[in-house]
Design brief:
elongated; 22% helix; six-stranded mixed β-sheet; 6 strands
Length: 137
């Protein structure tokens, strides 16, 4: 009888473990290929933001909006302000950043990428930085 109870407990435990293991498997695939602009870097399935170190600005890919500093504030707009009128988006350096609101850590990105403009990116291709936090993993 003890053997039967032990086998039943082991069987019940293995079923419970199997259900918990299956419940913890999660697949998160993000694609925004169609929403990326023509001037964006090639070869990325997903990009949340582009950092444009030449002008210290960002482009929010899903929202299709630029984010740039105006004094102490960050402005979100569909186009760049007049001071960037001659800026060539097609041939500029871009860094793909998959982090929510990277402009809140702007000092980090400026320090990391301002010095290597055009070193890795002579033709407008970006480098991916995947900070994740639930997006682009």
């Amino acid at each position: 009888m003890k053997r039967l109870i032990l086998v039943a407990l082991l069987f019940t435990g293995s079923i419970a473990f199997h259900k918990n293991a299956n419940a913890q498997v999660r697949v998160n695939v993000n694609f925004n290929i169609g929403s990326q602009p023509e001037w964006g870097p090639a070869g990325y399935d997903y990009a949340q933001y582009y950092y444009l170190p030449d002008i210290d600005a960002y482009y929010n890919v899903p929202a299709r909006q630029f984010v740039y500093a105006d004094g102490p504030r960050w402005i979100t707009a569909a186009s760049l302000p007049a001071r960037y009128r001659g800026f060539d988006l097609y041939h500029s350096h871009k860094v793909v950043i998959n982090e929510p609101r990277p402009y809140l850590h702007h000092d980090v990105y400026r320090a990391r990428y301002a010095h290597d403009n055009h070193r890795d990116n002579r033709r407008g291709r970006g480098r991916v930085i995947n900070r994740g936090w639930g997006h682009g993993r």
